[in-house]
Model the fold of this input.
Amino acid sequence: MDKLSSLTNSILSGTDNGIGRFQRNGKTFYRLRLDELRIYFEKINIAVHCHFILPKNSLNDFLFRCKMPASEEAVLENHQSFWDYLESLAKK
Done:
């Protein structure tokens, strides 16, 4: 958790390979890769608000990254990126 507590504006605005950034509903979300976890958070003024802590390569991690509703399995099954993701896991 040292990596999470030592975040700075320069780290969040840079291209650190352990931190991703994307826009969702007008908010900037960050994804921190921490061992086998993925931590999704946003920076609000000087505070960091954690939204999700998800296991690496989990279905919920995939759903959040792809902006998919977690409650609609039928939508998931019809989304080609889901099947591509599953195939990529099988190759590991």
Notes: The chain has a mean pLDDT of 75. Helices lie at 2-5, 9-13, 59-65, 73-77, 80-90. Strands lie at 19-24, 27-34, 37-44, 47-55.
